[in-house]
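Sequence in, structure out. First:
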Amino acid sequence: MVNRSLPVKREDRLVRPVRRLWDVFDLRSDIDRMFDDLFDFSLANVPLRRGNYPPIDLTETDTEFALKAELPGIDPKNIDINVTPDRIEIRGEVKDEWEQKDTGCCIMERYHGTFERVIGLPAEVNQEGVKANYQDGILKITLPKSEPSKPKAKKVEIETK
């Protein structure tokens, strides 16, 4: 029987177990520092909030869709709504009300800046019948469904020779 295993090269230097332990602690502290740096930001600047702002509820009945969006403290003049047969776009701007005076800001968590939300609709809507209402920070949009087009039967004449 022939031994066909490859020779293993061993390192000449000895690594003491205590040194290995300190290397693990150094690695752990480096990783902790990286995560602290990564998550050291204000919640108002979170880029992921932009895609989910404003929060919405979309409900459906047999004849219409009803969309409710939370937009507290926003002037309705700063909201733009565009509707296509298969989606609705809500754009606007949340004004920053904080004025720098003698006081400083300790925590800023409220969202401010521009936003855009595009919501795909499960069925086509009648663009002409869309209505919007804004009251107490809630934007309510009624989107009537378009009538499904019914194919009309067409009589086909048969040609004879």
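Second:
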Amino acid sequence: MQHLKDLIQRYLKGNASPEEVEALHEWYDSFDDSEVPLPVEPGEDRRMLEQRLLNRLKPVMQPPKVKRIPFWRYAAAAALLALVAVAGKIGWQHRYPSPQKNIMADNTAATDKPPANKKAMLTLADGSTITLDDAANGALGKQGGANIIKKEKGQLAYQAADANGAVVYNTLTVPRGGQYQLVLPDGTNVWLNSATSLRYPTSFRGAERKVILQGQAYFEIAANATQPFKVQANEMEVVVLGTRFDMMAYADEPTINATLVDGKIKVQNKILRPGQQAVLALSGHELTVRDADVNKIMAWKNGLFVFNNMDLPTILREIARWYDVEIVYQSAPGKELYGGGISRNLNLSAVLHVLEENGTNHFKTDGNKVVVLP
């Protein structure tokens, strides 16, 4: 990261060698699903640095090739990049929406929506609730045999305290426009996406560890061969045999999906290997297993929207959850499919602008609504 910072500063001052300029352009053309903030000097405004870098690089950019530069070599693509291409065009296209520019309707500047932040509601066994974004860091109380600790903004953990304590259930609810991380009492890590809830016991006892999911979450399961981990999401149950996986079960999506990143899971009588996805259709209840684009599935956790031949309604459902907006159609969505990615750290107007530039629909914001126009 320090090497990249030094390279950017030398380039902006006109002191970079030809080899360094070439390296910087290769980094700029690169894209990786793991996102790294743009390095800035102490006291330097990141947005101003982004714009200065864009102004210098943009005029000499060549049409990018579809390629991946090794992540370790140039520290990956920075958060300023918004990358979207319409399926059917060759390669990926760079787009550079300025955060300061009013690129939507006249009222956009006043109503623009920031990206999701770290907020959640914890419901205790007695039905009382704690708003975690308002709670101070540290101990929040005790539930059953576990202490509840708010570790820092966006992170909640359970720590075993009393092996004989009662087993009670808590629910962590992340609203639209939010995200949160949870450490369960067995050490399992869970990342919760927007519009998601997870119900879980405050201690795991008996023959299994079981939680109930609504929405989308990524799990890194603590190993325990004698006590299998299970995730129930509506009509799909995933039996975890030591693994990392993503599960998506939103009420407004047509399927429930479980995607295996590493290890092994079982869905019904099917064993998945890494890179596979179990898909349960809510109409007809048919379960299929297929190869998955893991990078696309994991993009939300890594700070990106990634589209892989996705239609506009599917994209807008994801945007609605992330920015906590309602989508209103005054025109039918175009038939184009999208591929590429956009940073989730951009404001709503910038994301919609990128979609406008690459599709046939236009958008305007009206309070908490995004209106789809011809």
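Remark: The chain has three domains: 2-80, 81-113+311-374, 117-251.
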